[in-house]
Amino acid sequence: MDFGEVLGKAWKIIWKNKILWLFGLLASCGQSRGGGGGGGGQGNVNFQYDNPPDNFGDMFPGFQRFVESIPEEAFIFFAIGMILLVLVLVLLAFFVGTFGEVGMIQGTKLADANGETLTFSQVFEAIKPYYGRALGLNLIVFLAGFAIALVLIGIIVVLSIATLGIGLICLIPLLCIFIPIGIAVGVFVKQSMVALVVEDLGIGDAFKRGWEVLRDNIGAMIGMALILIIGSAIVGFIVALPVMLAVLPAMGSVMYGMMQQTEEFVLGGIAVSLLCGVAYLPISLLLQGILTAYVDSSWTLTFLRLTGQKPEDADVVPPEPQELPEPA
């Protein structure tokens, strides 16, 4: 397989069809970072405690009074509300993520086949026949992963209790093995989903087809996985870097506020970080959508190329037929 052709074509597709950025963003919803001594400050700032407080409430009495004024029943309702909110968000992410994933596969397939600029309605109509089966496939994967996680957690808990924690040290090499296994499972699931959509298969047949493609092209799959994982990690770090920088005012204000027992300074730093985060949020979502669209498009093209489904290059314009001279 020509990695350069796949990666280059994936970029051409998502750049020409920017509507796929939206489907990439939707798909990302369901997928997947002092020294001791006398505290010498600078200027007139004193970084020493004049009277070290005994607890958090002594440092921030206003916040302590606010918390104490809240009835206990409110905390219970708040906890229940947060649990329900998380469940709703998880379900929403599941449905929306599957919708975006199928949209990316269908969008890439259509763009690769005809080279035309896609519209939202085209991709939406192409999703309908496969969405139910795609939900079923992702649900099976989620339930299987959840069951395996419960078993592993149970083994770790039992082993840690039986060996007084010593057994956890022996599990470290085993846990490292789970990283490549997890990557392989992720590639298998992705290829199964692509097979379900591209070849119009049922859920069971899609898993079989995904395994066949992975097994018969293990070298190409490993190479593509390494390229996309490393590349995504680098781009993801660059995208997340402004968020890390936005947190610095909050961290600095909290540290200074704890030393100086100044609530207003803490609240001001947190407010600055929140404003920076909100301002960067649209840019972050846009970049996340582009990155996910590129990765999903690359995996779809990988399946198409490895299974021999390579259409003619739509960018090449066929020569016009020449008129033959009339016979004398």
Features:
mainly alpha; 328 residues; 78% helix; single chain; 10 helices
Radius of gyration: 27 Å
Estimated share of beta-strand residues: under 5%
Share of residues in helices: over 70%
Q: Give the overall form.
A: globular
Q: Termini separation (Å)?
A: 52 Å
| Helix count from the secondary structure assignment | 10
SSE arrangement, N to C: HHHHHHHHHH
Assembly of the depicted chains: single chain
User: Based on DSSP secondary structure assignment, what is the total number of beta strands?
Assistant: 0
SSE class: mainly alpha
Report the uncertain regions. Answer: 33-54, 313-322
Kindly state the mean pLDDT as a whole number?
Answer: 80
How would you sum up the major sheet?
none
